Automatic annotation (TrEMBL):
GO biological process, one term: sphingolipid catabolic process
Protein name in UniProt: sphinganine-1-phosphate aldolase
Modified residues (N6-(pyridoxal phosphate)lysine): 344
InterPro entries hit by this protein: GrpII_AminoAcid_Decarb (IPR050477), PyrdxlP-dep_de-COase (IPR002129), PyrdxlP-dep_Trfase (IPR015424), PyrdxlP-dep_Trfase_major (IPR015421), PyrdxlP-dep_Trfase_small (IPR015422)
GO annotation, cellular component aspect: endoplasmic reticulum membrane
Names of the cofactor(s): pyridoxal 5'-phosphate
Keywords for this protein: Endoplasmic reticulum, Lipid metabolism, Lyase, Membrane, Pyridoxal phosphate, Sphingolipid metabolism, Transferase, Transmembrane, Transmembrane helix
Any Pfam family: Pyridoxal_deC
Record-stated family: Belongs to the group II decarboxylase family. Sphingosine-1-phosphate lyase subfamily.
Length: 546
């Protein structure tokens, strides 16, 4: 066998070293990109939070592991969950043989009279919460019979319509365009663009999708991240979960309840697609510093969504109604999108919201277009294909019926009532209760100074007086979203709150559903998130029990 020539040997050595070089380069590249990721994560979350997140994760997994090895503990946890499931079921699903269940189609169709009669029977048999007395936070925002009649008339006329076929239902197309135009004008962007959606969640999901696709097309971002205040609506996390976007949750200031701008600024990196601010937020009804967030967004050339889902038809009327208000709409530089729920303070039927963009160019990133579908060229603006034209007609009708003067009047009354509640909590419960931040609009959240008087227990006691309020966390508090129906019962609310606080102080039991759900966290320690997730899952399962 001939020995290798010098040339052959030289080739071996160089290919070998080229391979080694490539390996080294790839290795360094991988290490560097990982380091960049770690650095960005640390910048966004801070060292303490990162450590805390890791610690919680470790604890949870150690406990889950321990549970697997400790049958007695596991049985107890399983029994707790089973008990909670039964409680939920007994509350939601009518029990017993007396209840008629319709779980298969009737062999023959019923007469209309039978149907309405059966609905009446259901209401009587399984009961329903009274909402007309106004002891409910949010939920029903107008509730007047006159408006209901107008909406039902619009429903009837456009019952079968579908904006997917604008040639068949041209009036529905026109009404949808006009709803968007009216909202854009209210939010001071008449040259902007928008679409209607099925609700605030869809509006937010669409905005996140739009900014993601915009960032991918214009900046090549393939690992998108977004920066969201702790007080922003869960719909942003939901959107991020659907679209696989990394969320950095930013703390809010304890006193003002506005998102910490320094932290937001630190969290921005080349993968950031958008910032989020609320006007107003759901948990405590406060507003983020939209001007400062807009400035940051502009500086970094990223999107900025203002969530006015709840602020809807209240925020734009604060100024004309004479209430103090900080800038929140498209007049703020850097704001690229605003969501506004027509089905909240717009008094439209449920299933109606608007997502608005600074311009029509940005809106195009929301569309879905499939030019090669076997069913023909397919294009749709939002998540749904077919959509209810009746909801659009009902929304248009509500806006025409209430009008500028009607919304102005309801803003005066509703925000006036909310401010009265906040002022009376401050003056009459001084030293016991405090209001979170300085809420500018229709929602007031309050908590307890006294650790022995649990605010969730107060919420539980006041619920026995017929009130349906919302319990929130970080800090533990209760909120009330004032509606047109709440306005007349402000005095009753304050009186009932006095009684509830007294009762909670006299014999703190640490029990009750509002507390129990959160109390479970205290019992189960680090396991709480996984257990409450299981209970929430059971809750949704229960909704589908016939
Ligand atoms: C209600 C609300 C949403 C979501 O609205 P849905 O209509 O329930 O989907 C989003 N943000 C805020 C601040 C809200 O209050």
């Amino acid at each position: 066998m001939a020995s290798k020539s010098l040339k052959q040997r030289l080739e071996e050595v160089t290919t070998g070293s080229v391979l080694d070089h490539i390996k080294t380069v790839v290795f360094v590249y991988v290490v560097l990109t990982r380091l960049v990721k770690v650095e960005r994560h640390l910048r966004a979350r801070g060292i303490a939070t990162t450590f805390l997140e890791f610690w919680t994760w470790l604890n949870k997994n150690l406990l889950l592991f321990a549970l697997r090895c400790l049958p007695a503990q596991r049985k107890k946890a399983e029994a707790d969950i089973a008990k909670a499931k039964l409680t939920i079921e007994s509350k939601l699903v009518p029990q017993g043989e007396a209840v008629t269940r319709h779980t298969s189609l009737p062999a023959k169709g019923h007469y209309p009279e039978w149907i309405l009669n059966e609905m009446g029977k259901m209401d009587n048999e399984i009961g329903h919460a009274e909402w007309k007395h106004g002891k409910i936070s949010g939920a029903v925002y107008h509730g007047g019979d006159d408006l209901t009649k107008v909406i039902v008339a619009a429903f009837e006329r456009y019952c079968v319509s579908n904006p997917l076929h604008p040639d068949v239902f041209p009036a529905v197309r026109k009404m949808e365009a006009e709803i968007v135009a009216m909202c854009l004008r209210m939010y001071n962007n008449p040259t902007g663009a928008g679409v209607t959606t099925s609700g605030g969640t869809e509006s937010i999901i669409m905005s996140v999708k739009t900014h993601r696709d915009w960032a991918r097309a214009t900046k090549g971002i393939t690992e998108p991240e977004m920066i969201v205040p702790d007080t922003a609506h869960a719909a942003f996390d939901k959107a991020a979960a659907y679209f696989n976007i990394k969320v950095h949750t930013m703390p809010v200031d304890r006193a003002t309840r506005k998102v910490d701008l320094n932290r937001v600024s630190w969290a921005i990196n080349p993968n950031t697609i958008m910032l989020v601010g609320s006007a107003i937020n759901f948990p405590d009804g406060c507003q983020d510093d939209i001007v400062a967030l807009g400035k940051l967004a502009q500086k970094h050339h990223i999107g900025m969504h203002v969530d006015c889902c709840l602020g809807s038809f209240i925020m734009p009327f604060l100024e004309p109604a004479g209430f103090p208000v900080e800038p929140f709409d498209f007049r703020v530089d850097g704001v690229t999108a605003i969501s506004c729920d027509t089905h909240k303070y717009g008094f439209a039927p449920k299933g109606s919201s608007v997502i608005m963009y600074r311009n029509a160019e940005l809106r195009q990133y929301q569309y879905y277009v499939n030019p090669s579908w076997t069913g023909g060229l397919y294009a749709s603006p939002s998540i749904a294909g077919s959509r209810p034209g009746s909801i659009i007609a009902g929304t248009w009708a509500a806006m025409q019926y209430v009008g500028y003067d009607g919304y102005l009047k309801s803003c005066r009354e509703i925000v006036g009532a909310a401010k009265t509640i906040a002022a009376r909590i401050k003056s009459e419960f001084g030293g016991k209760l405090y209001v979170l931040g300085n809420p500018p609009a229709s929602v007031v959240a309050f908590s307890s100074y006294n650790p022995r008087c649990s605010i969730h227990e107060v919420g539980d006691i006041i619920s026995h007086k017929g009130w349906h309020l919302n319990g929130i966390v970080r800090p533990d508090a209760i909120h009330i979203a004032v509606t047109r129906l709440t306005v007349p019962v402000v005095d009753t609310f304050i009186a009932d709150l006095h009684d509830a606080v007294k009762e909670a102080e006299l014999n703190p039991s640490g029990k009750g559903t509002m507390v129990q759900l959160y109390g479970l966290g205290k019992v189960a320690g680090a396991l709480a998130p996984s257990i409450s997730s299981q209970i929430a899952t059971a809750f949704i399962d229960t909704l589908y029990k016939a």
